[in-house]
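so my prof wants the structure for this chain in the tokens format not the other one, which i didnt know existed until like an hour ago. anyway here's the sequence
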Amino acid sequence: MDVKSRHHLRSDEIDELAASLADRLGVDLDGDDYERVEFTDVDREVILVDGEPLVASFDGDRFLTVRGANEYPPDRHVVTVDSGAISFVSDGADVMRPGIVEASDDIEPGDLAVVVEEQHGKALAVARADAAGAEMVGDSGKVLENLHHVGDDLYEFRV
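here's what i got, hopefully its the right format
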């Protein structure tokens, strides 16, 4: 990911970002320095919070990155997978119903969600829902499209 530009966010942009994440995920983003990074080769922006890539845009929708979700564990929009799904999700596979043990009822189709593993609650991926949270636990079918996962370019991004 080649950096095109870096700009500090204005205080009103920081307030808007923090309020959006608090409303949607129940997290209190707390940082002293917020910087937007745009890329030449990827249609995505990243928000560095105190130098760490904690927020990114996914199809224009700002949401926590995997690192952000591990730093600020969300209360809402969370899908928990069993240990058998960890290696697949961490490698970028979409999330299938049989691997899901729990999903937030606040998730609607098209929403972004954080995928966490059940034993420690660590974030593995950010995904877009294909089904409502109440319908995610089951026997078959894909219910989440993996957009960002542990080990991908965004996860490995450092300034």
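also thought this was worth mentioning. The longest helix spans residues 11-25.
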